């Protein structure tokens, strides 16, 4: 009989949006309940571009999340990114990575980078101090089909960065395509990727199932089934290049259910349960701990967490609404739940 419990070293979330103010207070505890540490994305309005802003934001997160949770901060790269400020925040351990948003690619990316060469001085410095570059990998060229934006980004931008900065540590965030999985697999040890639950579970049909489904819409948008299968194979392969990053991205119900709905899926409340189901389906539960609790920490050069989290095989019904937000899997029944 299959085991009824699954115990792993306490996991981390290597990509999450916790927002600020009222929304932060609503969502922080969900991430803190599931994860020991999380890399918090800097796409606030205004974006987190200075060491002081990141330190203040970290305090607000600690207050909202409570004891026992460690937010790991990031710097939002703009065309004006200052290598000295980036290095200072890294040396003072305020932030551990910097995030590249191509201008206009996703939520709150208006201040992002308009041309990759503009941040070459910052990348040069990051390479020399061993600071990770996190990348939202999509081109914004309106001529490029929305479903091709990730694959084209590899050719137009990412390959060049990896070539020009051969020792720069890069995390290709929330990968959605076979091209991205292959690119990461074929690159050096300094290139890794995060994978979200939704990109392991849904393909693009989910966005149009019986009508337009705003809660299945995030960026990068879900792709064809063959891409979901490729991303699943990579995530469950046991390769240390792939690790957990939920990209939980809460938006108010009104902002999602709108004539121009925001991109982002709020998956924090049941993220581990969701991933565990995927690993079980792939007959890879023995690789779950590596993906959830080891590969990311090793890539970032951080210690592994002490303590364990146990999931038990037990049905859990995901509510239709939580804190006024619609969670991923709303109304569905999942097969694993966090014990205790
Ligand atoms: N993933 C999303 O669809 N949205 C994220 C931004 C991002 O990670 O691209 C958000 O901040 O809402
Ligand atoms: Zn993104
Ligand atoms: Zn994100």
Automatic annotation (TrEMBL):
Key word Metal-binding present: yes
Enzyme class name: hydrolase
Protein name per Swiss-Prot or TrEMBL: Dihydroorotase
Every Amidohydrolase-related domain range: 13-308
Catalytic activity: (S)-dihydroorotate + H2O = N-carbamoyl-L-aspartate + H(+)
Active site: 247
MF (Gene Ontology): dihydroorotase activity
KW Zinc (keyword) present: yes
Chain residues that bind substrate: 17-19, 43, 136, 219, 251, 263
PROSITE patterns: DIHYDROOROTASE_1, DIHYDROOROTASE_2
Binding site for Zn(2+) 2: 99, 136, 174
Gene: pyrC
Binding-site positions, Zn(2+) 1: 15, 17, 99, 247
Keywords of this entry: Hydrolase, Metal-binding, Pyrimidine biosynthesis, Zinc
InterPro entries referenced in this protein's UniProt entry, alphabetically: Amidohydro-rel, DHOdimr, Dihydroorotase_CS, Metal_Hydrolase
Organism: Sphingomonas hankyongi
Pathway annotation from the record: Pyrimidine metabolism; UMP biosynthesis via de novo pathway; (S)-dihydroorotate from bicarbonate: step 3/3
Function (record text): Catalyzes the reversible cyclization of carbamoyl aspartate to dihydroorotate.
